[in-house]
Amino acid sequence: MPTETEKIELSEDELREITGYAADCARRVLAIFERELPDDTRPRDAIAGAEAFAAGERRTTALRQSAWAAHKAVKEAPSPAAADAAFAASHAAAAAFLHPKASAHQVKHVLGSAAHAARAEELLADGDERGAAEGTLAWARQHAPAAVSAVLGRLPAAPAGGGRVGEFIRDLDAALRV
């Protein structure tokens, strides 16, 4: 296992696959945010930027700014579920900027979008919170591209903490790590 100061191999193709995966996870819960703030396009724009990068476009300052804009939308979200949906979108755009260093924090960048999507679904569930989150987590496990597992295998395990989202990140990390 690499130490926190070591660099890891991280190809542009892997970065694109991880970003596309994160965008897919975030898109699953975008409607949660948009039902409450239909005129706020920041999360949608972040996901679209992530999808464009995953499809081969350049990684730009505009993409990074869209990640920050979606992050700012979290503070304006009327409900915790909408906030987690915006966090998922922010993580999707930010995944394009994953650093090639062996830091447990980087695991959050790989899996944050999926974990926040699961939390958004869990918060909306009426009586079956665990089941709603598990459905989203199962989808995330089944749809993770090979690059997710390969890169996780080069990183230290997900860090402790982070509340319920942190639990989801650790669960996904354990399931997807090779």
TrEMBL record:
Q: Which InterPro entries match?
A: Imm5-like
Q: Name one Pfam family in it.
A: Imm5_like
Start and end residues of each Imm-5-like domain: 10-145
Asked if the keyword Hydrolase belongs to this entry, the reply reads yes
Q: Is Hydrolase included in the keywords of this UniProt record? A: yes
Q: Which domain of life is it from?
A: Bacteria
Record key words, sorted:
Exonuclease, Hydrolase, Nuclease
Q: Which molecular-function annotations from GO does this UniProt entry contain?
A: exonuclease activity
The molecule here is called Exonuclease SbcC
